[in-house]
Design goal:
Helix content: 10-25%
Radius of gyration: 25 Å
Low-confidence stretches: 1-5, 7-13, 472-492
Largest sheet: 10 strands, antiparallel
Shape: elongated
Structural class: alpha+beta
Length: about 500
């Protein structure tokens, strides 16, 4: 667990040293050196090659354990995205030396200036005890221990009904907190974001970072952030490193405007997602069970899909609408009709297996639907499958979604867009917005670039695949715009 042989001792200590001193570790004398990048523990009476090395980016907290002793907690990186808890107990010669070390390490570990007063880190944690596999209380209990060791203040509240989190966000006193964290699946984060967006001071509210401790059955946002477990999620949050997040503004004729942080789905994947609710006890396996049932009885839906191809580099700042409440929308009008769309809009008419407008790469931790998606690229990744994909190919496609290889199929249309319209004709279909059933009617969406802030690891792999890997398979691709033009699209 400990790097007993740093890659190069000189390199490990190459960053500017901010503090050094003698300590005892397991009864032996060492010199401890701290920089903003790493901690180096060098034995006094043994070879320097026996030095111990820790990365500051893996550090959670430093805290007193009595007398002249203090402890450091690390979430040490293992294979893949797994991390392991590592504790290091050190003894100083005096109480003053211990306090000096703590004054350096505590702020250093949360990305603040060493020896500076500890900045306020106060989070509101919203817990849904009934969501997903119903393990949110257990996840929070574990995370609370780590937040305490990192010096992060926590207020928490449990939701007791659908829409409760949305209501809380509308009346939340924003200056009391430095961030909001949800403990559940993706539906609770959807409520929090929509509650913040419904406030008169929505722009101030959306500057508040949001985060997620995964406790759902899908955990698509956590998968997209490379934080699929408690340790990786806590580490990202306590570092207070954030990334901008696009949202999708969604409107249907019979519902109010809502904001999606994940996806809008019509067809096969929506069927699998919502019809798998009966298997929530099974965790992510629920999607495999439902997927098998849907492939064996494959549905194809009649309707139209229209999209406005994104133009790279043309991302305009968000403005308030004329009424001063909510963002100003550029493409979404109450009376928008596919019949009246003109170029450069593209219209597809016919029967579809599915159409998905993705805002983030993963829709579950094992479902990489949009491998070229980024959190804040100002684009929606639209994935469309027409009716001509054979049933056995659909089964193969579903199996390849975990790796994102489904986009290589000639039957899959993948295009980056600024806006879209999905217009079902079949009464039996399902519209799914962020994992929740919506009305099965026309839905219009457009991207709101970089409107939110989310806690995100500095080394998150976003996008999972570079755009340079987006290649034509049976269609033509516009390399500059990373847009696949369907061979059977009618441009009006």
């Amino acid at each position: 667990l400990l790097a007993r042989k740093p890659p190069a001792l000189a390199m490990a200590g190459a960053a500017a040293i901010i503090h050094t001193g003698k300590v005892a570790y397991k009864g032996h004398p060492y010199n401890l050196r701290a920089s903003k990048e790493d901690l180096l523990l060098i034995p006094v009476a043994r070879k320097a090659s026996n030095a111990l090395f820790w990365n500051v980016h893996d550090a959670v907290g430093a805290y007193s354990i009595g007398d002249n002793r203090f402890e450091m907690l690390f979430f040490t990186a293992q294979s893949g995205l797994k991390r392991t808890k590592t504790t290091v107990q050190l003894t100083c010669d005096s109480l003053a030396e211990k306090e000096e070390w703590l004054s350096v390490l505590r702020p250093l570990f949360i990305n603040a200036e060493p020896r500076a007063p500890m900045p306020r880190r106060r989070l509101l944690v919203v817990i849904n005890p009934f969501g997903g596999t119903k393990n949110a209380p257990r996840v929070f209990k574990e995370a609370l221990v780590y937040f305490d060791k990192a010096g992060v203040q926590i207020d928490h509240v449990e939701t007791d009904r659908a829409g409760h989190a949305r209501e809380m966000m509308r009346t939340l006193v924003l200056p009391e907190y430095d961030g909001i964290v949800t403990v559940s699946g993706d539906g609770l984060l959807h409520e929090v974001i929509n509650g913040l967006m419904s406030r008169p001071d929505w722009q101030t509210a959306m500057a508040m970072p949001v985060g997620i401790l995964p406790a759902g059955s899908g955990n698509g946002m956590a998968g997209s952030l490379d934080t699929p477990n408690v340790l990786t999620a806590v580490l990202a949050i306590i570092k207070f490193k954030t990334r901008k997040l696009d949202l999708i503004a969604c409107k249907q004729p019979s519902t109010a405007l809502m904001f999606s942080h994940m996806e809008v789905i019509w067809g096969l994947i929506a069927d699998i997602d919502l019809e798998s609710d009966k298997y929530r006890w099974a965790g992510p396996t629920r999607f495999d069970l439902s997927g098998l049932a849907r492939v064996l009885s494959l549905r194809k839906y009649s309707g139209r899909v229209a999209y406005l191809p994104a133009v790279p580099g043309q991302i305009s700042p968000i403005e308030s609408n004329d009424l001063g409440s909510g963002p100003k929308l550029r493409h979404m009008t109450p009376d928008i009709s596919i019949d009246h769309l003109t170029a450069p809009w593209v219209v597809l008419d016919g029967r579809f297996i599915m159409a998905i407008a993705c805002n983030i790469p993963y829709q579950a931790t094992n479902c990489l639907l949009a491998p070229f998606s980024d959190l804040c690229d100002g684009c929606i990744d639209l994935v469309i499958i027409r009716e001509d994909m054979p049933t056995h190919k659909v089964a193969s496609m579903l199996l390849s979604i975990e790796s994102g290889d489904h986009v290589t199929s000639p039957h899959v249309l993948y295009v980056k867009v600024s806006a879209f319209v999905i217009e079902p004709r079949d009464a039996r279909g399902i519209i799914d917005i962020d994992g929740e059933a919506a009305v099965n009617e026309k839905v219009v969406g457009e991207v709101l670039p970089s409107i939110a802030n989310i806690f995100c690891p500095v080394d998150a792999r976003l996008p999972p695949r570079p755009l340079s890997q987006l290649r034509p398979v049976g269609n033509t691709v516009g390399a500059a715009a990373a847009v696949v033009k369907p061979t059977r699209a009618s441009e009006v």
